[in-house]
Known about the structure:
The protein is an alpha/beta fold. It has five helices and five strands, in the order αββααβαββα. It has helices spanning 4-20, 44-47, 54-66, 84-92, 134-163; strands spanning 27-32, 35-41, 74-80, 97-102, 127-130. It has a five-stranded mixed β-sheet with strand order 2-1-3-4-5. The chain is elongated and about 65 Å long.
Amino acid sequence: MFNDEYFMREALRLARKAAADGEVPIGAVIVRGHEIIGRAWNQVELLKDATAHAEMLALTQAQTAVGDWRLNECSLFVTKEPCPMCAGASVLCRVGRVVIGANDPKYGAAGGSVNLLQFDGWNHRCDIVSGVLEPECRALLREFFRERRKQNAESQRREAAAEDF
């Protein structure tokens, strides 16, 4: 029952909450053993904080739950490959394993663009598992950005029409 797909489904549930809030739909959970000790969704717009990524918020919760900044025995489940900030924070927190839904070839820092989670010069490396529930994770992101582009195009059409007067 408690496997990678189970915990990624919880991250997906949180990503859908982010989308409903108008945030980029990324969700994250931190698991120790079979217990979720941190969970969050992107809240950049809500908090007006560029660092309020799902991973960062979940890491903070997990550290509080553990009572330590070291999360060696924990796994981070995230619906989209972490950015450099979130990957760096995962390494600094000593996360044991990062489980990714959709890869991000443009900004991903777990092998998509760069691999900070396994950087040779650092004293900690995270194990990486990619592609867990990838179709669902990718579809959620695609739909969000498709709708965002549609809204932007409509807004531009309204502005252009207003300029005619």
